[in-house]
Design a protein that fits this description.
It is a single chain. The protein is an alpha+beta fold. Helix content is 23%, strand content 44%. It has helices at residues 14-37, 77-89, 173-176; strands spanning 47-54, 66-67, 70-71, 74-75, 95-107, 112-127, 130-147, 150-165. The protein has a 6-stranded mixed β-sheet with strand order 4-1-8-7-6-5. A two-stranded antiparallel sheet has the order 2-3. A hairpin with a 2-residue loop joins strand 6 (112-127) and strand 7.
């Protein structure tokens, strides 16, 4: 996880801190909703221009997106939105449900924060005459930055604890990535 500048202090009042945390929860929840409802015009607006995403480690290594030769890493909100769209809404449409629970959010300055969310996701697609699925469990590790008055996601890493999937779940990648 990128390091947030040390020595920064939080000068917000207790009410301002609570409001910031609620705004961070809202932007995070909106991101999950946009993925599942395929609202690709909204998805990039929830991230900083320079967002870093390291959430692709569960994919076969030759199918992981990369930036500057580094696999499992995407930099930039438009590049991220395109990669997510290609994954979930490309030549094979994936139905997805993403849930996140019990966040631990720490303000690291008046305009930066980090959080950890327990997560669960389910993904399905039709492979000929049968359905393939993945059910994943783990944690999102994120960082947030307030830009022009709005909290945005600036970093994300997904750590998976478990995946239950059908043997052919990743076959759809042969068609679209």
């Amino acid at each position: 996880m990128p390091q947030i500048a040390s020595g920064a202090s939080v000068t917000l009042s207790a009410a301002e801190k609570l409001l910031a945390i609620e705004e961070i929860k809202a932007v995070f929840s909106e991101r999950l909703r946009c993925m599942d409802t395929k609202e690709w015009d909204v998805y990039p607006t929830l991230h900083t221009d320079d967002v870093v995403s390291e959430t692709w480690g569960g994919l076969p290594s030759d199918k992981q997106p990369e930036t500057d030769g580094e696999r499992n890493r995407i930099v930039g909100k438009d590049h991220l939105a395109k990669a997510i769209r290609n994954m979930l809404d490309g030549s094979t449409r994936i139905t997805s449900v993403h849930h996140a629970h019990t966040p631990i959010i720490e303000l690291t300055s008046d305009t930066t924060a980090r959080g950890i969310w327990a997560m669960e996701d389910k993904l399905w697609w039709t492979n000929g005459d049968h359905e393939e699925h993945l059910h994943g469990y783990g944690h999102y590790h994120e960082e947030y930055r307030k830009v022009d008055g709005s909290w945005l996601i600036s970093y994300r890493r997904l750590s998976r604890l478990r995946e239950d999937l059908t043997p052919g779940f990743f076959d759809f990648l042969k068609k679209q990535l």
